[in-house]
Amino acid sequence: DPGDGACTALWQLPPGFRHPTTFTRAAPEAIYVLEGDLRNGAYRYERGHYAWRPAGAAHGPLATDGGALVLALWDAD
């Protein structure tokens, strides 16, 4: 949204994807795993799992073994 920076994205992560660094986002984030598996730090999400994180929450490292299709939503840039 050009007005407030809100964004919705569909991530298609290939098998073996790794994002090794930890990072934070300036906006709240919600994710929903549509297919596959996703690890975010100590948390593991599989098909049908939902997660919400407040602004400033630590993310990562991110990884998937078998690949993933993830719906991600942010309230602002």
Description:
The chain has 77 residues and is mainly β. The chain has no helices and nine strands. The chain has strands at residues 7-13, 18-19, 23-24, 29-40, 43-46, 50-53, 58-59, 62-63, 68-74. The strands form two sheets. Strands 1, 2, 4, 5, 6, 8 and 9 form a seven-stranded antiparallel beta sheet that branches. A hairpin with a 2-residue loop joins strand 4 and strand 5 (43-46). The chain is globular and about 35 Å long. The N and C termini lie close together (9 Å).
Give the SSE order as H and E letters.
Answer: EEEEEEEEE
Reported for the largest beta sheet, the result is: 7 strands, antiparallel
What structural category do the secondary elements indicate? mainly beta
Low-confidence regions: none
Q: Count the helices. How many?
A: 0
What would you report as the Rg, rounded to the nearest angstrom?
12 Å
Helix content: under 10%
Q: Determine the strand fraction and express it as a percent band.
A: over 45%
User: Ends: how far apart?
Assistant: 9 Å
Shape: globular
- Estimate the mean pLDDT confidence: 92
Number of strands: 9
Question: How would you sum up this structure in a few lines?
Answer:
This protein has 77 residues and is mainly beta.
What descriptors fit this protein?
77 residues, mainly beta, 7-stranded antiparallel beta sheet
